[in-house]
Design a protein that fits this description.
This protein is of the alpha+beta class. It has a single domain (3-176, 262-408), classed as FAD/NAD(P)-binding domain (3-Layer(bba) Sandwich). It is built from eleven helices and 19 strands. It has helices at 12-23, 48-54, 60-66, 102-112, 165-168, 234-243, 289-309, 315-347, 352-366, 371-378, 400-408; strands spanning 3-8, 28-32, 45-46, 68-70, 72-76, 81-86, 97-99, 119-123, 125-132, 137-143, 146-157, 175-187, 197-202, 205-211, 217-223, 252-264, 269-270, 273-275, 281-282. The strands form three sheets. Strands 1, 2, 8, 9, 10, 11, 17 and 18 form an eight-stranded mixed β-sheet that branches. Helix 7 (289-309) runs antiparallel to helix 8. The chain is globular, with a radius of gyration of 22 Å.
Length: 409
């Protein structure tokens, strides 16, 4: 075999998985079709469980240093401030939501692979076909106009929502499109909003604003429909109408419309092939739930593969390990997707009466003991099976005692 693990897709989840496998000394080959990370920031929020998953590789501090720590979110109604949500007191090793552009995260994860001789990273390489048999998995990769073949014990599909490998292995996909649409843009220059997140729930539509490194800021506005063509000044006008903040179009770095949908695969593994990240699940990007769910997917999958590769692990235990990875990560993704959908539904209510009732409920919640529950909820600390084991030597779904007993036999 050319490697023990092939990873198709070098986005956040694939790179995270490669680092975790490299830290374990597992021979891994990553294929990523893009030559460099996209310079548009896409997802920006990193939650405490993701940083916990990065800690064994020493990646957590590099990511923290690259980002902005958001320790509170200020919630606004149509005319008045409704309250604040604090993350600085949550029971976590990293008490904040970290805002850092996805391309910065990917760059850090890519560069860190140089620490692991067992990992090979190939950029500009597209896995266009794959198959498996009882002995291993095999992929065909297109790079520089030439086809190359590789083999491994396991294949981890991390090629995102639009990847084609799920179709090659005939995965059943059931996706639900939502009507909610948005326009996001990054601006440079001093907004005066500091390191706080600001959420505006108005009767005209929602606006979200998050700090970024180097004094930049992300603005997201709810739109009436998906905008293939964006009129000049549209986002700035909506921000002014709903929040009273004036943005200078000359300070805009980039903008992009996006729609929303939900997809959680019924199966996360087929024999030697595993899904992780957006290949396994897609959810509304409220609170950065999707990317963070993918990071913890990688943590669980690295533990699973490490045990499955051990020669003393029995066939029955390998089947159990694969099944437990699937069931636990499905449950985590379903929970995250539901939370994102509920948050989006609440935040996008318009018109006078629905928005009034929504804002009254939010105001009451933020000024009650419930506020101490809401912060861990949005920090993804309460997702079932949503955090790595405190002891990295212990696999959550196959007790060490059972494993050591098998070794002794």
């Amino acid at each position: 075999m050319d490697a023990e693990v092939i990873i198709a897709g070098g986005g956040p989840t694939g790179l995270m998985l490669a680092n975790l496998l490299g830290q374990r000394g597992i021979r891994t080959h990553v294929f990523e079709k893009s030559l460099t990370p996209s310079e548009t920031s896409k997802a920006i929020g990193i939650t405490p469980p993701s940083l916990e998953a990065m800690r064994p590789c020493g990646l957590d501090q590099a990511i923290v240093q690259a980002g902005v720590k958001v320790q509170r979110a200020v919630i606004h109604g149509t005319k008045h401030k409704l309250g604040m949500l604090g993350f600085g007191q949550i029971a976590a090793d990293y008490p904040s939501i970290l805002c850092v552009p996805q391309y910065e995260v990917e760059t850090i994860l890519r560069n860190h692979l140089a620490n692991y001789p067992s990992v090979t990273f190939s950029s500009g390489a597209l896995v266009d076909s794959a198959w498996q048999d009882q002995d291993g998995v095999y992929v065909s990769c297109l790079k520089s106009g030439k086809q190359h073949s590789f083999s491994a014990v396991f294949l981890c599909v991390c090629d995102g929502d639009k990847g084609r490998l799920r179709q090659l292995f005939e995965w059943d996909t059931d996706a639900s499109l939502y009507r909610d649409t948005f326009l996001m843009a990054d601006f440079q220059g001093d907004s005066g909003l500091g390191d706080d997140a600001h959420l505006f729930f108005t009767r005209h539509g929602a606006v979200e604003s998050f700090p970024l490194p180097e004094g930049k800021r992300r603005w997201i506005v709810q739109t009436e429909s998906f905008m293939d063509e964006i009129p000049s000044g549209f986002l700035e006008e909506r921000v002014w109408q709903r929040t009273g903040f004036r943005l200078d179009r000359n300070d805009m770095i980039w903008q992009s419309p996006f729609g929303t949908k939900r997809r959680v695969e019924q199966n996360y593994c087929k024999e030697r092939v595993f899904l992780a990240g957006d290949a396994a699940h897609v959810m509304p990007p409220i609170g950065g739930q999707g990317m963070n769910t993918g990071f913890v997917d990688a943590c669980f999958l690295a533990q699973t593969i490490e045990r499955m590769l051990d020669k003393v692990t029995t066939a029955e235990q390998r089947e159990q390990l694969a099944g437990d990875y699937e069931s636990m990560r499905k449950r985590a993704a379903a929970s995250a997707a539901t939370r994102a959908r509920v948050s989006m539904y609440i935040g996008t209510r318009k018109q006078f009466l629905p928005s009034l009732l929504r804002n009254m409920a939010i105001g009451l919640a933020l000024h009650s003991p419930m506020a101490h529950v809401v912060a861990p909820h949005f920090a993804m600390l309460t997702i079932p099976y949503g955090r790595p084991a405190k002891d990295k030597r212990k696999l959550l779904f196959l007790e060490d005692d059972d494993f050591e007993e098998t070794k002794e036999k």
